[in-house]
Amino acid sequence: MYKKLLSSSVLVLLIGIAVSALGFIKEMLVAYHFGTSAAIDVFYLALSVPLYLVSLYGSSINATIMPAYLQAKVQEKHRQFFSELMGLNLLFLLALSFICLVYSICLQPFFLHGSAVQNQQVLWIGLLLCPMIVLQGLTSYFDSILNAEKRNLINNLFSLGIPLGTIILLGFNQIPAALLLTLGWYFGFLLRFLGQYVILKRQIGFCWQAPKRIFFKKYQKLIQDFFWIVFSSAILGLLPVISNYLAGYLGAGQVASLNYATKLISTGLMLVGIIINSVLFPHIAEQIVKDQAQGIREGMRLAAASLLIFGFIMIPLYYYVEPIVALVFERGRFTADSTHQVAYILKYLLLYIPFYVPCILLSRLVVSLGISRIFVWGNLISLVLFFMAGWYLMVYLQLGIQSLGWALMLVYLVSALYLLMNIMLYRKRTQ
């Protein structure tokens, strides 16, 4: 069993490395053309909330749909399940796009502290990105189904389209930076969506059904689980949005620098996420269905192993961040000063990773056990902790932007302990 799991993980990882490599090339080209200019600040400030909303949807739908789809497949009702849930998901994504539109017009101006021209640019780019929620959200829904169908290899190949869209458009130098990156975002996800749609049409042969009232009653338990995760994830998902706005207070180029550092981390974590969502989570979900006690032990062993592995990996990375940043980005308009600024931020962001990965694995175990309601209190605790730690380090101790790294480390450490405690309590109650 473990040999097969390992071979699947290696294949998925190799494709993930190819996707990450292309993503690196995209970020290197963006850095070459634009450096840490204010135009990059505009794009990332505008992207913060749309990306937050679609990420909130993506993580929640992946966690809830896959176990339910596997159950429907056992009953040979998976085609009907996919078709009916497609309409409900589209309805929810349209609602998220409308929420984003209202936020961009009514609330976002209160959180922007750039010049009047820059703030206006953030508003317009934010409005352009609102419909993107529907397109990117549908690719997340397709993700969960394709992974459940064990088509994870070809599904992850389609991820190559995401950075490819921006790389292609970077050849059009006459387009303003923020607009170019926005169009590249659309183009990349459109390429991925089309590939996924063709495969699913052949694999399942679904027929899309418009949402009906009866579907809400039929899938009431699934919808409740979904909204438990959405509500709880909404709290913790605010952390990167808040981080971007806080970086905006610290001066021009800080948002761009924070996002270059975050991109380096997220590229590595994307590889981990691919393995977790494509291989480990389906494995844990299947173990829970077969034998709950064995599934719990399996999930906890994987979480403990990830803590040790990533703890050792982060030690050398912490001391060599500046050469890594220079190797990846330092060319064109990305200067040596830019390298130093990004490396300084990256060094402290690395601190939370050894605790982040076990949190993801434990949260997937919690979802499989059907106790998602615990996320609400856990994420409320995390949000309060982040604010208190961030304020104390940034304002009282005046540690600057490195405070974000220390605060995130504390958040994920406490979160891991909270999830572990609740899993242990659940196991004790069900024995």
UniProtKB/TrEMBL annotation:
**Gene Ontology annotations for the cellular component aspect, listed alphabetically:** plasma membrane
Give me the segments passing through the membrane: 42-70, 90-111, 123-142, 154-172, 178-200, 226-248, 260-281, 302-321, 341-362, 374-394, 406-426
Specify the superkingdom: Bacteria
Enumerate the UniProt keywords alphabetically: Cell membrane, Cell shape, Membrane, Peptidoglycan synthesis, Transmembrane, Transmembrane helix
What's a single GO BP term from this record?
Answer: peptidoglycan biosynthetic process
Query: What InterPro entries does the database record attribute to this sequence?
Result: Lipid_II_flippase_MurJ/MviN (IPR051050), MurJ (IPR004268)
* Gene Ontology MF term list: lipid-linked peptidoglycan transporter activity
Question: Where is this chain's protein located in or outside the cell?
Answer: Cell membrane
Q: Does the keyword Membrane apply?
A: yes
Membrane topology designation: Multi-pass membrane protein
**Major place of residence:** membrane
One matching Pfam family: MurJ
Q: In UniProt terms, what function does this protein have?
A: Involved in peptidoglycan biosynthesis. Transports lipid-linked peptidoglycan precursors from the inner to the outer leaflet of the cytoplasmic membrane.
Under PANTHER family, the record lists: LIPID II FLIPPASE MURJ
Q: Which family does it belong to?
A: Belongs to the MurJ/MviN family.
Q: What is this protein called?
A: Putative virulence factor MviN family (Multidrug/oligosaccharidyl-lipid/polysaccharide exporter superfamily)
Q: Which organism is it from?
A: Acinetobacter baylyi (strain ATCC 33305 / BD413 / ADP1)
